């Protein structure tokens, strides 16, 4: 652009490292992730109940379509420059989009075979699978305190969702498979952004969303939902519903962007822990907004989950601070003029010289 300033990129997603106390921190991104995730959960519930739009695949398709359009608009406005990828990298994007869609598909199918409580408890094991995948394939290591901090979190999710644990053999298999896929997706998302590709979160969203949209439409057609949506649009579609779905898609775009950015700035394990805490906060929202009744054990589980999330955050912050702390030199540092002395040592040496004179 000549004679006109380019729009400044959003400082929330890149640029120079921010100083402590600024908005661009990993945990501020997690806070925004929580807020948008809960907002979308409430909004989805409102659409399902107010407009009787009970088409999950179509809703997912709207989310992916709006995410792709939103990322394209941000690219045209100059907030990021799409990377030049080769054939191999484009194949990685295709496989990642398929993993994203398959994770949603398996989760939706398994819900028909198991109770909601059982589904939530098994999904709460995602951090365990994330740790296993990171150790086996990425060579990562975690401290004993990290493992210990996860125990109250997992126990809290179990207590918060205690109820009917009915399931079939196929439902059990699909729920566990969906949990493993969720862990793999989170790990792969992190590696794509901080590994060799180093993709900007919006660039990843721009490449993944159109592919996921096409795959979602195909799944919707295979399940017969697409025909039902066409019939619904002919009889019950209204301007209010169109606007509600548009706002829903916009929220989904920002949620996906924030989710990818938070994943890049934290870690795959932190994101899975955050997802667990989000599940429990969703129960709190259901209690306060939709008048859902919970028992004493469920309430105790909610408290334990929140405390477990805080415990993990404390351990994670402390270990990050230890890693960033510069090591103490084993020997006194020297310069070209001799050893570098501390302020106290310099003062003592000066006093000795003065007394001698």
From TrEMBL:
Taken from the UniProt entry, a GO cellular component term is: membrane
Q: Does the keyword Nucleotide-binding apply?
A: no
Membrane protein topology class: Multi-pass membrane protein
Region named Disordered = 1-22
Q: Which InterPro entries match?
A: EmrE-like (IPR037185), Sugar_P_trans_dom (IPR004853), TPT_transporter (IPR050186)
**One Pfam family in the UniProt entry:** TPT
Q: Where are the transmembrane segments?
A: 27-43, 55-79, 91-111, 144-161, 167-184, 204-222, 242-260, 267-290, 296-315
Q: Where in the cell is it found?
A: Membrane
Q: Which UniProt keywords apply?
A: Membrane, Transmembrane, Transmembrane helix
Sugar phosphate transporter domain mapped to chain residues: 30-313
Assign the protein's first listed, main location to one coarse class: membrane
**Keyword Protein biosynthesis found:** no
Name recorded for this polypeptide = Sugar phosphate transporter domain-containing protein
Originating organism: Entomortierella parvispora
